[in-house]
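User: two proteins, same treatment. go.

Assistant:
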Amino acid sequence: MRYAQIPHEALDGLPDLNSIGLLAIMLRHRADFPFKVGDVIKQKKAIPGPKLGERVAYGAMTTLIQHRWAARVKYMCGRGHMHTAVWRTAQQLTDDDLRTIAEKYTAGTERILHCKGCSDDPEIPVRTVIRPGATLQGPWGDYEPIAALLAPDGRLHDAASAPVPGIAGTGTNRQNTPSPQVAPDPANPGTGAPGTGEPGTFKKNRENNSPLLPQAPQPRSEEEEDESKPTEKRPSAAGIVAEATGATPAEAQGVIDRLAKAAERQGRPIGAMAAYVRGCDPADLARHLAAVRKAADTERSRAAARNTSGAVCSEHDAVLPCRACRNDVEKLGDTDLAAALLEMHGPAERWDLAELLNVGGVR
């Protein structure tokens, strides 16, 4: 029987079962396994029963990073292809560990890695040089530039490798000595069988064969993703809506606004909108799109009704809405005349200026 081992520090210190489960999946694999959260999501979706959502899975990864069980680095190889390296460990990362990881991705550092953009065969590693701009996500929260982290006033510049003993999150035991690292059986690393890995034996996956730290248990890392086109961008939330429903860009943004407002009313603000929209039922998106189009039709009808009186601009002698007034405000940035005309005639008569200047909440 095969099974994964989880450190007691993780079982006692992590705040939710999702992160514990993800850590178990991460640690069950051998050091050179190309682990990706997206692959876990796909594998779980194929199993009957409640589905693992992207927000839950990636949220669990964020929790592991915040509690020092993982770290992520985004960097660019010498030819401009983006990569994300995930470092995972069976013993919590100290600031000294994080500093050592960061130093591996400083500008000009030479690395050997697999890159689909640099090699005709993605299984053949290539030698490259790290470009400036690499960022590291650690327990502090968001990604931060590695150059800033290692600067004289950076949070990792004076990182100490001797954490406080007996405190959860430090990666040490009560004697302030490194705990043995839990790993697959060293004699048969592909099995996931129980065993205690020797400190310093975990290797940087698909990049080099050097242990991370010679005197401490080693985190493991994998290339989570790489992109052959440095300028390629992931679709935006509005782009996903447009592709799923056939909406125009403006209509798609209207759908996004409705989703955001609905979530705020329910007290559950949406963090990553693109990921949220990607998981929405197309029927729900179509329903929101219909509401957006109905609101636009209503507004056009109201605008048409306003113009039936034949009212004209006293300054430009043009039928409302006055294009000359709009041009002054939108293209020339001159709001003085529009404001004066609005004050003279009032928002009821010069509704176009009230809408243009957003006076009194008129839209």
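Protein 2:
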Amino acid sequence: MSNKLTLEYQNNPKAFIQDNDNLKKIANLTGSNIDDIKVVLPANTYLNLDEQLELLQGKFLDDIKKMAFEYIIKAINK
């Protein structure tokens, strides 16, 4: 979801889920069924753009780099 939609959802999840335009946008992006989205959406946590950047620039990024490096080493040593 875009940062605008994420903030909209975080500010009022119930209203967001009741808005079919929002659900259609998600369905078009994901190929999911709107009825499924209504169930799954409240069960997930959605980070806003600042939170995403913080996560992706910190330890999470370091872990991804480490895992990729280990994968490459294993592939070379086969």
